[in-house]
Specification:
215 residues, alpha/beta, Rossmann fold, two-stranded antiparallel sheet, 39% helix
Length: 215
């Protein structure tokens, strides 16, 4: 059986393209590029939803809490060899009123829920890779999303890496900071979504990392 890799994230996993308002295609999204790089012995499962948070209910849009969706997601893809979680960008929105430390605690709740979904894991062994998303550029405040995102999002996003690493280590997860491998700047439309080059760089990094995790 192929190795099942569930990629659980937000719009940057779904593949939102800020320049078109649509979605990057199968030759551009990091998930699809990763599939091509790893080959037919791997199955990369896209579970990206725009607006998704770690555990916070959005008062404006429904069904965006990752905590509420992780169980059915994992069970629908069992047996799962590895869960990749890349969330936190949406948690920085001003309307949630949470700090980087609280966002990390939301991530911890999500990880705990995933680990407790015992029937989904191949051989009953949870395996999770936490990815800190690329930081939001401060220029987002003057973009088309500035009003809905609110103030302080860039500063919060910059504080996630250190907090996420501590949570990943304490929960027995693997860890990657996307800011260390994605050198391409965020797009110049909303300053918070990966560019096509950013997708490629993330896929390259994961193509090297995943075979080491699941050796």
């Amino acid at each position: 059986m192929k190795k099942h890799i569930v990629c659980f994230g937000d719009s940057n996993t779904h593949g939102y393209c800020a320049k078109t308002g649509g979605r990057f295609d199968e030759d551009q999204r990091w998930t699809c590029l990763l599939q091509k790089k790893l080959g037919e012995d791997w199955l990369i499962l896209e579970e990206g939803l725009s607006g998704r948070t770690t555990c916070f209910d959005d008062p404006i849009h429904e069904a965006l809490s990752g905590l509420e969706q992780i169980y059915p997601c994992l069970m629908s893809h069992e047996p799962v060899d590895l869960l990749i979680i890349m969330l936190g960008t949406n948690d920085t929105k001003e309307r949630f009123g949470v700090s980087p430390e609280c966002i990390a605690l939301g991530l911890k709740r999500l990880i705990a829920k995933a680990i407790s979904t015992t029937d989904c894991w191949k051989d009953g062994k949870p395996s999770i890779l936490v990815i800190t998303p690329q930081n939001i550029d401060p220029r987002y405040e003057n973009s088309e999303v500035g009003g809905t995102m609110g103030k302080g999002c860039a500063e919060k996003s910059q504080g996630l890496a250190s907090e996420y690493q501590k949570i990943a280590e304490s929960m027995g997860c693997f860890y990657l900071d996307a800011n260390k491998v994605v050198t391409a700047q965020p797009n110049d439309v909303d300053f918070m979504h990966l560019t096509e080059e950013g997708h490629r760089q993330l896929a390259d990094a994961l193509a090297g990392l995943l075979p080491q995790i699941l050796c």
